[in-house]
Amino acid sequence: MSTSKNVVVFDYGFGNVRSAERALAHVGADVEITRDYDRAMNADGLLVPGVGAFSACMAGLKDARGDWIVERRLAGGRPVMGICVGMQILFARGIEHGVETEGLDEWPGTVGPLKAPVVPHMGWNTVEAPEGSELFASLDADARFYFVHSYAVHDWSLETANPAMRAPKVTWATHGERFVAAVENGALWATQFHPEKSGDTGAQLLTNWLNTF
């Protein structure tokens, strides 16, 4: 079990906040569900869930000043984790049904339809984690995680040539085509899958996140 860390699950109307709360509490976190600006800013960790449409999630996040909270936490090196659409909105833009919506632009890239024989991608799948991943530490290469999504990021264009900066670690999965399944980038981590619905493997992953702060 992790030592107790205060984590805010950001409640902006678009996420499985209760499932996230239970999963984090299970691995030893002191969890609060709130959209309060100060509490979200001052927590040890901030988890941003997300379900539904990209455009609706972005509108809800902005209405709750979540865009400001994420930006300011990251500017101070304070941990933030996005899940599912909470990961997707961290990218530059999302395109759904021909409508383009600006994201938080923490990472370059576009969220678009997943090209696969069966959509949505719903169920358990393995991932391809990079060497040295902290997010997937202590997990087997064949560990499976629970996905529910119809849209994904299909490319990754953020690189760094500065040897003083740690390059982001990108994890991939495949359903019809390869897509970004998770990212570790300094204080900002995110998963396309749902760790809170992924049993023991998800619990270990959340523990790994808690152990970084």
Keywords:
Rossmann fold; 213 residues; 4-stranded mixed beta sheet; 33% strand; 6 helices; 7-stranded mixed beta sheet; globular; alpha/beta; 24% helix
Name of the CATH class: Alpha Beta
User: In what range is the share of β-strand residues?
Assistant: 25-35%
Category by helix and strand content: alpha/beta
Radius of gyration: 16 Å
Largest sheet: 7 strands, mixed
Question: What would the CATH topology be?
Answer: Rossmann fold
Question: How far apart are the termini?
Answer: 14 Å
Mean pLDDT: 94
Stretches where pLDDT falls below 50 for ≥5 residues? none
Shape descriptor reads globular
The total number of structural domains is 1
CATH architecture level-2 label: 3-Layer(aba) Sandwich
Strand order of the largest sheet: 2-1-3-4-13-12-11
How large is the count of helical segments?
A: 6
Number of strands: 13
Helix content: 10-25%
Describe this structure in words.
The chain has one domain (6-210): 3-Layer(aba) Sandwich (Rossmann fold), CATH 3.40.50.880. It has a 7-stranded mixed sheet, with helices on both faces. The protein has a 4-stranded mixed sheet with strand order 6-5-7-10, covered by helices on one side. Strands 8-9 form a two-stranded antiparallel sheet. With 213 residues, it is an alpha/beta fold. Helix content is 24%, strand content 33%. It has helices spanning 17-26, 37-42, 54-63, 66-75, 85-88, 199-210, and strands at 6-10, 30-34, 45-48, 80-83, 91-96, 99-102, 107-113, 121-126, 144-149, 151-153, 169-175, 177-185, 188-191.
